[in-house]
Amino acid sequence: MLALDHGTVRIGAAICDPTGTLCTPLPVIEPPEADAVAALVREREVERVVVGLPVHLSGEEGTQAALARAFVAELGEVIEIPVDTYDERLTSRMADVSRREGAGASRDSIAAAHLLEAYLMSLARKGEA
Q1: Which pLDDT belongs to residue 34?
Q2: How many C-alpha atoms does 11 have within 13 Å on its Cβ side?
Q3: How far apart are CA 49 and CA 124, in angstroms?
Q4: In order of start, what are the domains of the chain with their CATH numbers?
Q5: Neighbours of 55 (CB within 10 A)
Q6: Main-chain phi, psi angles of 100, to 5 degrees
């Protein structure tokens, strides 16, 4: 599974091992293009992609969420695996903490790793993992 922290300048990326136990940040994808993600999906034999959905703390979606949804639609045109969205609230703050604690990957990719961890936990709670 591949998680993406979509941005207009770059995309943070993280992948998990086949057991869904270990989430690892990957290098950022610059520029943020669906074809580059498709190449990564093929290279890493990804079975599902989850894209962070930037929702306001109030739960409302704004401009950034609309951009993320448009990117999900673009991905759907270039890859043939499921693409989900998942609430990414606070993942950037969590990434900042991780970096202060010594994580060496980019902030965007660390945020993607936190997103993937949260997504996997939600699947486990639903009994889907």
Answers
A1: 96
A2: 27
A3: 17
A4: 2-126 (3.30.420.140)
A5: 18
A6: -65, -30
């290098």: which residue's tokens? 27
Q: Which residue has the tokens 């950034």?
A: 64
- pTM score: 0.88
Find how far residue 49's CA is from the centre of its chain: 7
Q: What's the pLDDT tens digit per position in 82-123?
A: 999 998 876 666 666 665 676 677 888 988 998 999 999 888
Torsion of CA 53, 56, 62, 63, to 10 degrees: -70
Instruction: Return d(Cα 80, Cα 48) in angstroms, integer.
Output: 9
3-class secondary structure, 127: coil
Look at residue 61 and tell me whether its pLDDT is greater than 80.
yes
